Amino acid sequence: MPEFTPSAAAPVARLIQEFHKLPGVGPKSAQRLTYYLLRAPQEEAQALAQAILEVKEKIAFCTICENVTDTDPCLICADSQRDRSIICVVEEPLDILALERSGSYHGLYHVLHGVISPMDGIGPEDLKVEELLGRLKGGGVSEVILATNPNLEGEATAMYLNRLLRPLGLRVTRLARGLPTGADLEYADDLTLARALEGRQEVT
Ligand SMILES: [Zn+2]
């Protein structure tokens, strides 16, 4: 039981603890969410619990692009209108949502599911890099956009991938500067993202 809820009933303390494990949820927010649910109608709590379970049961990763999906291949990979000659490499599935919102990208994606971070013991072998190479060796792709975040790990990952992809004779590009440095792609506004895509530059 967390020390900030010494007097809470056990089920309450347990829910606070579970909320507290979520990213961005501090002890105070965990308490607030828990007490909100305590007062909420039964159906609302049921719907939340059901949605959480369903996401774990029904959602898998696309076997082509590694995006989260409930169909395989995902809707983007299956869409014949998309430009299959461009692959945009992103860190997380949320980045795809951001780029799709910008409405200015019509190619395919590849989700790495992380970035290279020696501090956290994460190397290329922990990311979906082999899967990316496999796709590229299949042919038909002329450009890879490295859309990792503009921070230390994101840049390092982009540089690593560039070294790996160059010999394959592809055009390798990086989103234009103008994205706030250190910020996550998912928080960039649509116009900034659209401009960053438009102004993408070849990595040398
Ligand atoms: Zn896919």
Short structural summary:
This protein has 204 residues and is α/β, with parallel strands linked by helices. The protein is built from eight helices and seven strands.
> What is the mean pLDDT?
90
Q: Give the strand order, joined by hyphens, for the main sheet.
A: 4-3-5-6-7
Task: Please mark out the parts with pLDDT under 50 across 5 or more consecutive residues, or reply none.
Answer: none
Architecture per CATH nomenclature, i.e. the level-2 architecture of the largest domain: 3-Layer(aba) Sandwich
Number of individual domains: 2
Termini separation (Å)? 53 Å
SSE run: HHHEEHEHEHEHEHE
Overall helicity: 40-55%
| Biggest β-sheet strands, sense, barrel | 5 strands, mixed
Present as ligands are: zinc ion
Describe this structure in words.
This protein has 204 residues and is α/β, with parallel strands linked by helices. It folds into 2 domains: 10-58, Helicase, Ruva Protein, domain 3 (Orthogonal Bundle); 68-183 and 191-196, 3-Layer(aba) Sandwich (Dna Topoisomerase Vi A Subunit, Chain: A, domain 2), CATH 3.40.1360. It is built from 8 helices and 7 strands; from the N terminus they run H-H-H-E-E-H-E-H-E-H-E-H-E-H-E. The strands form 2 sheets. It has a 5-stranded mixed sheet. It has a two-stranded antiparallel sheet with strand order 1-2. Helix 5 (93-102) links the parallel strand 3 and strand 4. Helix 1 (10-20) crosses helix 2 and helix 5 (93-102) crosses helix 8 (190-198). It is elongated, with a radius of gyration of 20 Å. It starts with 9 loop residues before the first helix and ends with a strand. The model has no long low-confidence stretch (mean pLDDT 90). Bound molecules: zinc ion. Zinc ion binds next to helix 4.
